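Suppose you are handed only these lines of text.
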Amino acid sequence: MKLIVVDDYEAVSRAGADVIASIIGRKPHSAIVIATGDTPMGIYEQLAARNARGDVDASRILAFQLDEYLGVPPGDRRSLYGWMERSFLAPLDIPDANVVRLPWDEGLAEEGCAAYVRAVEAVGGFDLAVLGLGPNGHLGFNEPPSGPGSRTRLVDLTNESIESNADYWGGPDVVPRRAVTAGMDLLLAARQILLVVSGEHKQDILRRTLDGPVTPDVPSSYLQQAGGVIVLADRAASPSVG
Ligand code: PGA
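From them, the structure of the protein bound to 2-phosphoglycolic acid can be written out as follows.
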């Protein structure tokens, strides 16, 4: 695991964009799983600006959705697919045909998860997983407890995740209680993992991710055992410097 600490959020965004651009440069058809959440937004803005200048061409990547709320259709502004589309797919000119979605409809969830896993396997696994760090150590919506073998599946959200997503939804009472997530098994097997972390409120969970016991209670702690992990953090989030 390689920890890179930079000054601030702006520097995280630039360095994160560099990592992604270099992977796409080496392999234009890279299979990349794309987190939403606040932290990677600066990275995606950087990439969009580079795309507009012609410095990056991400249009041939295969983009995989990381997680989704159950029962929230893609047309709803609050769906995570919608967020991914606005922040990443549209600005980078990635066509629909190059996007693998997760199911959002409960009736189709099992079949949709199986189809997603088949699509990941068909390309030989993820070349890159771009991940944020949940305040409870979740990766995607792999909520604690989630071990390294946790599959792509339906999950119940923890109170901590409901609280941390409350602003986005306009209050904890309206946050959906269930979600679908790409499994820990697929994420940890990615050839590169870029974990992006910013802000003092992430300091404690980042410390537990990097140095704490490896346990299902902190799903992100399994990154200690995965290969090709880059943890990109700003000084405020960094337990050693912050
Ligand atoms: P954030 O979310 O980037 O909005 O902090 C991270 C997460 O909960 O996975």
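What can we learn from it? The helical segments are 9-26, 41-52, 80-89, 109-122, 159-164, 166-169, 184-188, 203-211. The beta strands are 2-6, 31-34, 62-65, 67-69, 99-100, 128-132, 153-156, 178-181, 192-197, 229-234.
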